Amino acid sequence: EVQLVESGGALVQPGGSLRLSCAASGFTFSYYSMNWVRQAPGKGLEWVSYISFSDTTIYYADSVKGRFTISRDNAKNSLYLQMNSLRAEDTAVYYCARGTSSGWNWGQGTLVTVSS
Amino acid sequence: IQMTQSPSSLSASVGDRVTITCRASQSINTYLNWYQQKPGKAPKVLIYAASSLQSGVPSRFSGSGSGTEFTLTISSLKPEDFATYYCQQSSSIPQTFGQGTKVEIK
Predict the structure, then answer these.
(1) Mean pLDDT across the stretch A62-84?
(2) Predicted pLDDT at A11
(3) CA of residue B26 relative to chain centroid, distance
(4) What is the pLDDT at residue B105?
(5) Predicted pLDDT of residue A52
(6) What pLDDT does residue B106 have?
(7) Binding-site residues on chain B for chain A (CB distance < 8 A)
(8) Interface contact flag, A103 B100, Cβ < 8 Å
(9) Exposure of A37 by Cβ count < 10 A (0-12 exposed, 13-18 middle, 19+ buried)?
(10) In which region does residue A110 sit, left (phi positive, over 0), alpha (psi from -120 to 50) or beta (all else)?
(11) pLDDT band at B57; cut points 50, 70, 90
(12) What's the sign of the alpha-carbon dihedral B64, B70, B74, B75?
C-alpha cells in the first residue's frame, strides 16, 4: 500500500524557517516524481514545488521561488521542503504527493502556521 | 495552464444528478484528473485521464471531455458525496488545479 507521511509542521514566526519531511513507503520511491501542494485555511489547492525522480528537474511556484527548496533522498525514501523567510501567507496544510498516470497519491498533510 | 471550474459551489439534494465543469486555458488532450476532498482530509482521486474511473470509486461518478472542456457527473448524489471537487491538468508541469467546487446539501 502506498503511504506518504508528512512531518515537520509547526508554529513559526514571520521570517523564520522550517523543514518539512515526507516519508514514502509501499512503492519504489526513486521511480517517481514528487510534489508539494499546500492548502491555506478554507482555500483551494495550490501547487508549490515539483522534483523529478532523479532530482535533475525542479520547479517552484512563483509565490515561493527563492524562499523554498525541494529535495529528495532516494536512499531514505524521503522528500523534503526547506522553507525560509516564511510569511503569514505561507500558513497552510502542506501535502506531499506522488505523481502517476492515474492521478496523484497524497499524504495526510502537515500544518504550518506562520504567526507572531 | 489555468484551470477554471464552474460553479464554485452548488446546493443539491440526495438523488440529484450533479454536473461540474472544468475548462483549461489551452488544450490538454485528456490529461485531466478529478479529486474529491472532504474537510480535514487529503484529496482522493476519482477520475483520471478525463474518463477513467479510479479503482474502488463508485460508478455513479463519471468524467468526460477532451481538449479544453471537461465535466464530472455524479448520477445520483449520495450523502457521502457532499464534499469539494477539484480538477487538475496533468498535461504539463506544474500540474495545476481548478479552484474547486463545493457541493452542499440543499
Answers:
(1) 97
(2) 98
(3) 18
(4) 87
(5) 95
(6) 85
(7) 33, 35, 37, 41-45, 47-49, 52, 54, 86, 88, 90, 93-100
(8) no
(9) buried
(10) beta
(11) very high
(12) negative
Report the alpha-carbon angle B92-A46-B44, nearest 5.
85
Q: Name residues whose C-beta falls within 8 Å of residue A85's C-beta, 6 or more positions apart in sequence.
A: A15, A17, A67
Q: Residue A83 and residue A64: Cα distance in Å, rounded? A: 9
Rounded mean pLDDT, B69-74: 98
Distance set, CA A53 to CA A70, A103, B14 (Å)? 12, 16, 43
Cβ contacts of A79 within 8 Å, gap of 6 or more: A21, A22, A24, A34, A36, A51, A70, A71, A72, A96
Nearest residue in A to B35, CA atom: A103
The cell numbers describing A116, all together, are 507572531
Instruction: Write out the DSSP string of B6-36.
Output: E-SEEEE-TT--EEEEEEESS--TT-EEEEE
Enter the C-alpha cell of residue A19.
Answer: 523543514
Q: B43, A107: Cβ pair inside 8 Å?
A: no
